[in-house]
Specification:
By secondary structure, the protein is α+β, with helices and mostly antiparallel strands. It is built from eleven helices and nine strands. It folds into two domains: 2-86; 110-337, 2-Layer Sandwich (BirA Bifunctional Protein, domain 2). Bound molecules: 3,4-dihydroxyphenylalanine.
Length: 340
């Protein structure tokens, strides 16, 4: 029995020398001291069959070995634990001086930003935001805006009709009509919103895009107020050095009508590929509200003067940020969006 004990002690010592982790130590403890199958436990149970004379000595040796195993495992456990803390603080698994991992902050979509920038400019000069439906009637989208029955914009090929009288609005101008029917002058509003046209998507067209409409109606407005407001807006949005030019144009709902250009932001007017060698870029349509429009909404055109404009938000964003393909705004490619 004593010899068997000596052999067991040796086998424990060599097992112990190989244990590297807390888990291995637990398994080791089970193997020798486990309540059911532990090797030493079994020997202790066999003590009864040892001759009475030897029992005392054998019993003492068994207890000594048990104590030895327990302290050896405990000591080894402490050593392993302090070793791993030491490694951690030495930076082997955790270096507290390393820079943290930064999470990228999200931000507004460039079109949202441009829309809000434009809104801010108009808020600052007393305008408020008005809203209208994307599904419109032909009355609000065309008729009340003095767009004649045979105008090409009314064509099936240009407009998404839902029925004979319902369509997806092709511009934000119907919000002018809705607002003037709802509120009396003086009025100063802008209406940002989504509009729809049957255009094939390419670098400058999209069947769904955003516009922002503006309308001012008051008693003593003049063409100079109109020009001044457009200039103030465009300089505030693009840059103070931007030059603004008005070209005569035609819209059913304004008279006179103008197309408004800014000096090319890419070459500052000295002619380049972007401005097609003209030095100017067209940015919006505008004009003085046609009396015929006032008649539809019941505003006295003898007393009231109005001016209005409509601009494409994508177009403003493309010019401001130098984006040459409108499709970039819709594809949600993070490599594009992260640049803003
Ligand atoms: N609705 C026009 C368009 O979509 C833009 C426009 C031109 C709006 C002149 C206006 C305006 O309010 O006065 O092309």
């Amino acid at each position: 029995m004593l010899e068997k004990l000596a052999a067991l002690k040796q086998s424990f010592e060599s097992d112990l020398a190989q244990a590297r982790s807390g888990r291995q130590l637990s398994l080791l403890r089970d193997r020798y001291l486990g309540r059911k199958g532990g090797r030493l436990t079994l020997m202790m149970k066999g003590l009864k069959s040892v001759a009475v004379d030897d029992r005392k000595e054998v019993g003492r040796s068994l207890n000594q070995l048990k104590a030895r195993i327990e302290t050896a495992i405990e000591t080894a456990r402490q050593r392993i634990e302090s070793e791993s803390t030491r490694q951690e603080s030495a930076g082997i698994t955790l270096d507290v001086t390393l820079p943290g991992k930064r999470r990228a902050l999200g931000h507004l979509h460039p079109l949202t930003r441009v829309r809000r920038d434009i809104e801010e400019i108009f808020y600052s000069i007393g305008y408020s935001v008005a809203d209208g439906p994307e599904i419109e009637t032909t009355y609000y989208n065309f008729e009340a805006l003095n767009i004649p029955e045979d105008h090409p914009a009314r064509d099936q090929g240009d407009t998404f009709y839902l029925s004979e009288n319902l369509l997806l609005r092709t511009h934000t101008s119907p919000v002018q009509i809705r607002t003037m029917k709802r509120l009396r002058p003086p009025l100063r509003i802008i209406c940002p919103g989504t509009v729809y046209r049957r255009d094939n998507p390419d670098a400058t067209h999209s069947p769904v895009f955003q516009q922002i409409e503006g309308l001012a109606v008051d008693e003593h407005l003049t063409f100079r107020d109109f020009k001044g407001t457009m200039e103030y807006f465009l300089k505030a949005f693009f840059s103070e050095g931007t030059r603004v030019r008005f070209r005569p144009s035609y819209f059913g709902f304004t008279e006179p009508s103008a197309e408004v250009d800014i000096s090319c932001t890419f070459c500052a007017g000295s002619r380049c590929r972007v401005c097609k060698q003209t030095g100017w870029i067209e940015v919006l349509g505008a004009g003085m509200v046609d009396p015929e429009v006032f008649r539809h909404v019941g505003i006295d055109s003898e007393r009231h003067i109005g001016f209005a404009f409509g601009a494409g938000i994508e177009r403003f964003a493309m010019i401001k940020y130098g984006v040459d393909n409108i499709q970039n705004f819709y594809q949600n490619d993070l490599r594009f969006l992260r640049q803003f």
